[in-house]
Design a protein that fits this description.
2 domains, about 350 residues, about 50% helix, 11 helices, elongated, alpha+beta, single chain
Length: about 350
């Protein structure tokens, strides 16, 4: 028992715990206590207390209403990705999630993303991932240094993923999806900018499950998602925007949304003394690992809503008591006048 007590007291931080409690206690005593003291000395302890409680619960109701509307303040859990399956080997037909089995194992048949960029004719994509290294980056380097830098630049090009290509030229990827060059089976390809939260969740899950020890041991390949609320069509007009906004605002149920993040172990490389860390390159001899996640919408507004409704009920009860007291006082005064 003594050991437990010692552990409890050892875990109490003066600055965070004790000082925090003291600050809140003093603030409540001075700010709210001063108002209660004024009311109590002018109207009596009972009436003053009732007036103070009515004002307090009314203020909390207004504050909690703002919390409820904007999802701020004392709120519940935020939306997040929850892992439902991890498939090793890249064969999604073995997944326990039916939606995941619809995503083809080879989304770009007969070509690599680098070859797709080279043959795309997209100036932006080719400049970013299929062009030789700019000569100004080789100035002042020795022949060996220039060759190493050029080789690293070419490696950067050849290991490009479709998610990275979409971040550079989204119309190019969208067109390839429409004409069947990229086959997704109804899924959507997420760019690196769109998949940041999903990739972070998948990375944390892989490390927590012991698949990898650190995030440096693997490279994120592509990310996909399916489901969720309807999205705006390409080149939407005003009516499309109005219909999309109204429809999603009035939607009661949220369609289930899934995401798949594919990763692969990288080749082991050791940087020389004083050199920059080597560029991560996926080891094609290792299996592709697919992390399948489901969107958890959380309950961000549940707690503010409960606080708002509870405060509203208490405010109504206190206001009702004040109303009954006023009616009783008026009846008593009327009885005195009649006498």
């Amino acid at each position: 028992m003594a050991a437990i007590s010692t552990a409890v007291f050892a875990g109490i931080n003066f600055t965070v715990t004790i000082r925090g409690l003291l600050v809140v206690t003093v603030a409540v005593s001075i700010l709210m206590g001063s108002i209660w003291l004024l009311l109590a000395t002018n109207t009596g302890v009972r009436v003053g207390t009732l007036l103070a409680l009515t004002g307090f619960f009314g203020w909390v109701t207004i504050m909690a209403t703002v919390w409820w509307i904007f999802g701020i303040g004392w709120r519940g859990a935020d939306p997040s990705w929850k892992t439902v399956d991890i498939v090793r080997g890249g064969d999604l037909t073995r997944s326990s999630v039916e939606k995941a089995r619809q995503l083809p194992n080879d989304i770009l048949p007969g070509a690599t993303p680098y070859e797709f960029v080279k043959n795309s004719g997209s100036a932006a994509a080719i400049k970013e991932y299929a062009s030789p290294i700019p000569q100004d980056q080789l100035e002042g380097l020795t022949a060996d240094e220039a060759a190493a830098k050029a080789a690293d630049w070419q490696l950067r090009n050849t290991i490009v993923t479709l998610s990275e290509v979409k971040a550079v030229d989204q119309p190019l990827v969208d067109k390839a999806i429409k004409d069947g060059t990229i086959q997704l089976g109804g899924w959507r390809l997420s760019s690196t900018a769109q998949s940041g939260e999903a990739v972070a969740s998948a990375t944390a899950e892989l490390i927590n499950e012991g698949v990898f020890d650190t995030a440096d041991e693997f490279k994120v390949l592509d990310a996909f998602d399916i489901g969720g609320k309807p999205r705006l069509p390409d080149s939407p007009d005003r009516w499309d925007r109005i219909k999309h906004y109204v429809g999603n605002s009035l939607r009661i149920k949220h369609p289930i949304r899934y995401a798949v993040v594919e990763v692969q172990q990288v080749k082991t490389k050791v940087a020389g003394l004083g050199e920059a860390p080597p560029r991560p390159e996926a080891d094609t001899t290792k299996p592709v690992i697919s992390v399948i996640m489901k969107r958890n919408l959380g309950n961000r507004r549940v707690q503010p809503a409960l606080v708002c409704l509870a405060s509203l009920l208490l405010f109504g009860a206190c206001a009702r008591l004040l109303h009954l007291r006023d009616k009783q006082s008026m009846a008593n005064r009327a009885a005195i006048v009649e006498k």
